[in-house]
Description:
The protein is of the alpha/beta class. Helices cover 31% and strands 16% of the residues. β1, α2 and β2 (71-76) form a beta-alpha-beta unit. α5 (122-131) runs parallel beside α6.
Amino acid sequence: xxxxxxxxxxxxxxxxxxxxxxxxxxxxxxxxxxxxxxxxxxxxxxxxxxxxxxxxxxxxxxxxxxxxxxxxxxxxxxxxxxxxxxxxxxxxxxxxxxxxxxxxxxxxxxxxxxxxxxxxxxxxxxxxxxxxxxxxxxxxxxxxxxxxxxxxxxxxxxxxxxxxxxxxxxxxxxxxxxxxxxxxxxxxxxxxxxxxxxxxxxxxxxxx
Length: 208
């Protein structure tokens, strides 16, 4: 099995044209600090990246625009909910004919040849990547930014892909129900395995 077999199992999703313009999202929500992450693979030809939590695809597009013809495997549930910082999308994201995945595919339509979407539980998706004998060059953790979830993501990535670069987003996130859960998870994970880590702006990279 390979990337191509995974792509056949998960072809690019198709939707009817979106019901109204979403020009305010055309630029995506690319994080400024993420510019520090692609250089980790600057000399790699056609790298494979797994993104755990893709939302509207801003980070995936940045990887594609920055690196040498990468494949980005996007893992996300893309549930039917209103995106917190743009409630004008409610008519799309909460519509079962569209949902968040429709917005993702619209924004990433010019990058689709470099993206594989796996919709569902991110941990199950990561296991599927492993089952297809794919060895990613980098796993980017950017899904549920709470301690227990980040720790589970890192531990599974470590067990499946021990030689892969591990990094993630939202180092500074301070969730109302949990103070700095991402930081706590990364520090605990690193200490347990004897690793160190570096923080770039709001992103972190595990040194293994």
